[in-house]
Write a structure and sequence with these properties.
By secondary structure, this protein is of the alpha+beta class. It is built from 3 helices and 4 strands, in the order αββααββ. The chain has one domain (about 10-40, about 50-110): GMP Synthetase, Chain A, domain 3. A hairpin with a 5-residue loop joins β3 and β4 (about 110).
């Protein structure tokens, strides 16, 4: 029974991330692709820092952004995440110590 409750809570938060991120940009600006949990193998299990981080992934509709536009887009995603205190608390409780934003497969930008 406890496993079912935990699994349901995890699915609810995953849906929350999807809903939250899907509404960050208008459809003609950027498309939310999804998120991925990454566990860093280069950090020892015994280290005091967490090994997991989350990547939220978007694709731009117009190709590449100028530096100022990219910075503003990263800020927009990060602030949307940070304003959802319940989601941040859940991510922290689940062992995530960082969230990154990606707009392509080459670059990631750290939020927190």
């Amino acid at each position: 029974m406890l496993a079912t409750i935990v699994l349901s809570a995890t699915n609810a938060h995953a849906e929350n991330i999807d809903i939250l991120m899907s509404s960050v940009f208008p459809p003609d600006e950027a498309t939310y692709i999804g998120f991925e949990s990454v566990e860093r193998e280069d950090i020892p299990v015994s280290a005091a820092v967490e090994r997991k981080y989350l990547i939220v992934d978007f694709r731009l509709q117009s190709g590449q952004l100028q530096s100022e536009q990219l910075q503003a887009s990263v800020h927009k995603v990060c602030m949307t995440l940070l304003k959802d205190r319940d989601l941040i608390r859940h991510l922290s409780d689940s062992g995530y110590d960082m969230v990154s934003v990606a707009f392509d497969r080459r670059s990631q930008f750290d939020c927190l």
